[in-house]
Design brief:
six-stranded antiparallel beta sheet, 8 helices, 45% helix, 15% strand, 299 residues, globular
Length: 299
């Protein structure tokens, strides 16, 4: 049996109306309804699975993904390894401190009413040195002067100084002989400094062979540099006194009473280059400059 409906036969409420264009509010309502339905279905499903005691897979987070991609491994570190690392660190720190603070030795002598009354020589482990003194220019003069100069020790003398300091245990402990019957020859002091030590010793006379050799060596260097001080003064104010002073210096150098002659070379060169100085004096200054560097006393 077939029925045929005519539009005219349908009630007015059942007639098909033309489709209305959807608005933005309609789309929002549809999305909300779909989300509500999906959420309701998911929650109901999860609740039913959990109530049944079954495992419910969870969505893996980004952190868990990273942990699974890069698993962490525990590396066992023994006490012996830590001890080795600590020892290496200590050695590295010591080497760095030693490089930052080079070793230095300073010798000073104070002897009132002598010429000079005070002087000191400081030498670093690389050979660079500084000298300073104060006192009368010559013993029979009232003129006083303070003198300072920098110079460099010869390699042989520098090595000898630091070797003797090692033999003297870096001047730690008792250095002075303690013999009160000995004549006073000036208050002497030796100081040693580096990244690990800072020791010093004051004495009038020492019975230690290493300290005796160091004292003689520094006194020979001091005598050389005092010639430099006087020659610089005479060249500027009393050129006629240069001949006698250079003659004394040459005699002492040839006897081996002076050390580190090269430290005086700048002053001797100025005298030699000065055409206003007589030729005999200039020739003597030239001969002294030609002496072997590091000439020192062997007594």
């Amino acid at each position: 049996m077939h029925f045929r409906w005519q539009l005219a036969d349908c009630p007015q409420s059942a007639q098909v109306l033309p489709a209305r264009k959807k608005t933005r509010d309609d789309n929002s309502k549809e999305r909300g309804s779909a989300t509500t339905a999906l959420s309701f279905w998911h929650n109901s499903y999860v609740a039913s699975r959990e109530s049944a005691g079954k495992f419910v897979p969870r969505r893996m987070t980004t952190n868990r993904k990273r942990r699974s991609m890069f698993p962490q491994r525990l590396i066992p570190v023994s006490l012996a390894s830590l001890t080795v690392f600590a020892a290496l660190f200590a050695v590295s720190a010591a080497v760095s401190a030693s490089a930052a603070d080079p070793a230095s030795i300073t010798f000073s002598l104070d002897f009132p009413n002598s010429s000079p009354e005070h002087y000191s020589i400081a030498v670093d482990s690389d050979g660079r040195a500084h000298y300073e003194s104060s006192g009368k220019i010559v013993p029979d003069s009232d003129d006083r002067d303070t003198y300072q100069t920098d110079f460099t020790f010869s390699d042989a003398t520098r090595a000898k100084i630091f070797d003797l300091a090692t033999q003297a245990h870096y001047f730690a402990g008792k250095v002075d002989s303690g013999n009160k019957k000995l004549a006073f020859t000036g208050a002497k002091k030796l100081v040693y400094k580096d990244g690990q030590r800072d020791t010093s010793a004051s004495y009038n006379y020492s019975s230690q062979p290493a300290v005796q050799q160091l004292t003689m060596l520094f006194q020979s260097v001091g005598a050389t540099l005092e010639f430099s001080r006087r020659l610089a003064y005479f060249h500027r104010y009393q050129k006629l006194a240069l001949d006698d002073e250079l003659k004394r210096m040459e005699d002492q150098a040839r006897r081996g009473d002076l050390a580190e002659i090269q430290a005086v070379k700048p002053v001797l060169q100025e005298i030699y280059d000065d055409s206003s100085v007589i030729n005999v004096v200039r020739a003597r200054a030239r001969r002294i400059m030609d002496l072997p560097p590091g000439t020192s006393s062997t007594r």
